[in-house]
Amino acid sequence: MTEDSISISDIAFNSSEARERIGAEIFETPLIPSLKQGSKLLFKAENFQNTGSFKIRGALSKLTALAKAKDLDAFKFITASSGNHGIACSKAASILGASLTVVLPETVAKVKLERIKSFGVDVVIQGEESGQAELYAQKMSKEEGYYYISPYNDSEVIAGQGTIGLEILEQMKGRSLDNLFISIGGGGLISGISAVIKHHSPATKIWGVSAINSCTLADSIKAGRMIETKHFETLADGCAGGVDEDTITFSITKQTIDELLWCEENEIEKCFRDMAFEEHQIVEGSAALALAGYEKVCEDISDQTSVVLLCGANIDVDLTKKLLS
């Protein structure tokens, strides 16, 4: 798919089709008012989603789209992940009876590694961060005949993530949605949701939130071209790592993101604790990142209705104890 062929309306349409295919296997997650701030701040709680994150939507969207046209037994699939996409693809493969290998970086959270192994898929540990794991999986795809499933650089994966946007609009029940805060990694999540929202509610402001320790896509959008950046350890591990130079998410997000925000690790950690102690929810760092973005600008939009996307809750128990102690 070329940049010129990417249409926001096409993504919105494909998300509606994806919803029909995957609806039986996913949860319609709640839109929850903030206990601290009331109904002006709402949380779209994908932390309660099947597999513990939004990623199951994209994984099922991709495999069910393939299954409509071809026999999945003809493929041996491979993917790479920092954890959640691997869990989701493993779950989707188990539902559809597909063969899958998951490449994970050395930094993968223990809870995510154990969950992936529980589905009986093949696991390969390769690379210091998820971008290196992706490169290795892509290399195996070319050399050994695997079908590579990208965590973000795939139109059907993006369409699956876009089903969240359809749910948000329905759950707003006609209320104005002024702001939507979404964390950014490779861009699959924000591409799908923002395309759907902009198609149906163009006045809604989309805020893309990145961890300053690993922010290739956000920095590239700011620069106006794909660039390489250094990656450092971040609590928002689901958003960490490199991005494909030819990713379609770059073009989509250039069209749909209104504002970019970058957050420090101490801001992400604070919001993790705020979610636990003030909102009574345990989320992973990438979800806390979206809230950290909101908190950077909340005083300026206090009279508006905002939604923070909580992307998942797959966080290591020992790390959780450490952060809460």
Structure write-up:
The chain is α/β, with parallel strands linked by helices and 325 residues long. The chain has 2 domains: 3-54 and 155-324, 3-Layer(aba) Sandwich (Rossmann fold); 56-149, Rossmann fold, CATH 3.40.50. Helix content is 46%, strand content 16%. Strand 1 (31-34) and strand 2 form a beta hairpin. The model has no long low-confidence stretch (mean pLDDT 94). The protein has helices at 8-22, 55-69, 84-96, 110-117, 130-144, 155-172, 188-200, 216-223, 248-256, 265-277, 285-297, 317-324, and strands spanning 31-34, 38-45, 76-80, 99-104, 122-125, 147-149, 179-183, 205-211, 259-263, 306-310. The protein starts with 7 loop residues before the first helix and ends with a helix. The protein is built from 12 helices and 10 strands. 54% of the residues are buried.
Please specify the SSE layout and strand pairing.
Layout: H1 8-22, E1 31-34, E2 38-45, H2 55-69, E3 76-80, H3 84-96, E4 99-104, H4 110-117, E5 122-125, H5 130-144, E6 147-149, H6 155-172, E7 179-183, H7 188-200, E8 205-211, H8 216-223, H9 248-256, E9 259-263, H10 265-277, H11 285-297, E10 306-310, H12 317-324
Parallel strand pairs: 2-10, 3-4, 3-6, 4-5, 7-8, 7-10, 8-9
Antiparallel strand pairs: 1-2
Helix pairs in contact: 1-2, 1-6, 1-7, 2-3, 2-6, 3-4, 6-7, 7-9, 10-11
